[in-house]
């Protein structure tokens, strides 16, 4: 395993990031837009979405903090206390990915593993995180191993399957319920790049469906950006309307591309999709997110230990 490495091993836990409070939403949005401030209408729209899900309080950052803490505990449990030290690195908010790597260097870390809180690989998402992490690690002389994906880890499939089964229990007739696996859309241009993201999402969905013996399921996209270029579809709202026309009235959303409660889940699904469901007389439910679930922590810890085997 990691016994050949002397000293503490850093674990850079990366995610998209979320503002710390309402006051930092504009800076966060500006960073997402590569330094271009949003228009007042765009900013108002985003702030109103946050207000709708958190009411002015801001617990969303705590979700990620709890995940990082839980992973630290799991690594202490499987490798011994103090062997691994977790650092957080966010794409669009402080502490940024570079800050996490710099903090490792300041603590004298020479070997580290980078992992992203999303199971499926895309060059546009996970690939971008890893590029930034590796560039910063090189500056500080840190040997960095990366976890590319973990979308078919047995514990992940089991944790998701448990939640789907639980969700189906909320319907009077499970047989008539369509399970909609969803994930964040990306620009269509990733298809020309032969990006593995769409196929890995289907593999995760298929593995859960097979484990449960589901026949009524399909994959759909959500949360596409408004950039003027085509994004992968169909969007979940379109999918819901089409299913409704076919007579489907029971739907269980399973966001396999997300691992915690954040804006794309709490607003795009719990508010926007539920509003559509209400208007079309659809019974819509959503599975519980993984958050800091022990099984998910096992997935992350296993992936870190496996990646470390290739580091000398």
What does this molecule look like?
It is built from eleven helices and eight strands. The protein folds into two domains: 159 residues, Rossmann fold, CATH 3.40.50.1400; 133 residues, Rossmann fold (3-Layer(aba) Sandwich). The longest helix has 20 residues. It has 312 residues and is an alpha/beta fold. 45% of the residues lie in helices and 15% in strands. The mean pLDDT is 95. Strands 2-1-3-4 form a four-stranded parallel sheet, sandwiched between helices. Helix 3 crosses helix 11, helix 6 packs across helix 7 and helix 6 packs antiparallel against helix 11.
CATH class of the largest domain: Alpha Beta
Mean residue pLDDT: 95
| Lateral arrangement of strands in the main beta sheet | 2-1-3-4
- Low-pLDDT residue intervals, each spanning 5 or more residues: none
| Oligomer state of the chains in this structure | single chain
Number of helices: 11
Through-space gap between termini: 11 Å
Can I get a quick summary?
Keywords: Cytoplasm, Heme biosynthesis, Iron, Lyase, Metal-binding, Porphyrin biosynthesis. By secondary structure, the protein is an alpha/beta fold. It contains eleven helices and eight strands.
Any descriptors?
2 domains, Rossmann fold, Coproporphyrin III ferrochelatase, alpha/beta, cytoplasm, Ferrochelatase, 312 residues, four-stranded parallel sheet, single chain, 15% strand, globular
